[in-house]
Amino acid sequence: MVARAVGVGRHRVEAAGVDALAARAEVPAGLGPAAHRDPGPGPTLREAAAPGLDAPDPGAPPRAHRAVFAVTEFRAVFAAHLLSLLGVVVSELALTVLVYDLTGSPLLSALTFALGLLPYLIGGTLFAGVADRYPARRVLVVCDLLCAACVAVMLVPATPVAGLLALRCLVAAIAPVFTGTRMAALTDILGEGDLYVLGRSLLRIVSQSAMLIGFGAGGVLLTVLSPRGAITVTVVTFLCSAALLRFGTRDRPARAGAGEGGGTLLKESLSGARLVLGDRRVRALMLLFWLPAMFVVAPEALAAPYADAIGASPAALGLLLCAMAVGHIGAELFVGSALSPRNRSRIVLPVAAAGLLPLLVYAVRPGLPLALPAVALAGAGAAYVIGLDQWFVDAVPQELRGRAMTLLTAGLMTVQGLGMALAGLAAEFFPVHQVVAGSGIIGTVCTLLLVAEVRGTAPGRMSDTEGRDGADRHVTSR
Asked: Which residues make beta-bridge pairs with 10?
């Protein structure tokens, strides 16, 4: 579940969370200061975005994370995020215990956690159109109320185990729609510049911290409450989140007209996914969120068998599981507070490329004194995500932003689940330390290739033919 926390907020990217291949810290043409404005001619979807929002000054001095709290609506979003996240973590732990108590099956207990990841791709692909088709506040409130209703049914003693797992899937399918809608709504609340980047960063930091705190709080609650009693906490947090969003944020119109063009919601969702993934620039940026995330989860997914292999204590296992989150939080705080927008942009490619290299330490089967800083440094690779957030929002037009953000979230969670599964499969045939080191090597090679693609899609670097094709693709899809 710590691995999941990484996914929620990090794009190792969630994700992230989230490149050495860019041996220099300079950003290629088009990705420097001008990248904070509309890219202009080229195959990016951003061509049709609303021009009314001013771009930030990339050379401006850095602003601390606390600057976003001056925005009243963000305070409501932040509080709702914190409440619902803590509730979800507590409920996941309690539900796992409940399923095990009812069945005595370790498989079904573990499956409860897995079902928190698997439905993301389905929900994020099939229901992404909701994020742009309806007003954001309405979507967020309804999602919270639906989740509260699902969790409330879990409290009914007559609910069978199959029903508990099905409800868990439904909550997980709703999650990417909620998260994508909230990410897109932040551009309305904070604008498309530095405040948006800092707001996203702060929510990721809270996600990492709340996961660690939430598991501890859940453990304490389970010592004084039954599993169903602990799950009740989640119902309350979802309802409080809905109330905060309903009364603490403004009601804004939908980005795209409901039923635009007479299409169904499913058709709009799938066409939006095709349009987003069909744009070379947006696709490359999205993959830069996803790809490192798939490989960086290996040390977390294999923390227990590795701790056993080196004879580490249960306390040491806990440290291994916390190290990546600590590195991630530290990187987010430093980059968000100490670097200007221009410098955040400059470090995206170098840091993304080098982010998985610390995992190579596992090749020598290190003990805890070496493994802990290596995992923490891999977590600190999230430093590139803050600048990447700005590039992504610059590349996607407002009317597609909700669908793009939902797809980004769904893909991030899915690839991390896939990465954990592949790491576990590989560990069946190879020593754990070799699997982790191999993840670092393969992931770095793949990221280097992807960075070359990101450079090639930089505004101004595309051929005239590619630019016309991209523009045509956007016009015909509207």
From this structure: 15
What gap in Å lies between CA 393 and CA 183, rounded to an integer? 10
d(CA 413, CA 205): 17
How big is the chain, counted in residues? 478
- The per-residue pLDDT for range 8-55, each reduced to its tens digit, is 333 333 333 323 222 222 333 333 333 333 333 333 444 433 333 344
Rounded distance, CA 351 to CA 12, Å? Answer: 10
Beta-ladder partners of 308: none
Terminal-residue alpha carbon distance, the chain: 40
Residue 16 φ/ψ, nearest 5 degrees: 35, -85
Estimate the crossing angle of helix 341-354 against helix 432-456, to 10 degrees: 130
Q: How many CA atoms lie within 13 A of 16 on its CB side?
A: 37
What is the rounded CA–CA span in Å between residue 116 and residue 331?
26
17: CB partners within 8 A, 6+ apart: 6, 7, 8, 9, 10, 11, 204, 208, 293, 328, 382, 385, 412
Q: What is the C-alpha to C-alpha distance for residues 391 and 305, in angstroms, rounded to an integer?
A: 38
Q: pLDDT (tens digit, 9 = 90+) per residue, 42-101?
A: 334 444 333 333 444 555 555 667 778 888 889 998 899 888 887 777 777 788 778 878
pTM (predicted TM-score): 0.66
Instruction: Please tell me the distance from the alpha carbon of residue 223 to that of residue 427, in angstroms, as a whole number.
Output: 34
> 264 is written with which tokens?
């169904």
Alpha helices in 193-313 (DSSP H): 194-224, 227-248, 265-278, 280-296, 298-301, 303-309
**For residues 211 and 8, what is the distance between their CA atoms, to the nearest angstrom?**
10
User: How many Cα atoms occupy the beta-carbon half-sphere of 283 within 13 Å?
Assistant: 14
Q: Which tokens is 81 given?
A: 């995020």
CA atoms within 13 A on the CB side of 167: 22
3-state helix, strand, coil in the chain (%, to 5): 75, 0, 25
The torsion angles phi and psi of 160, rounded to 5 degrees, stand at -70, 165
Q: Beta-carbon neighbour count of residue 59 at 10 Å?
A: 11
| Spatial CA neighbour of 45 closest among 146, 132, 163, 137 | 132
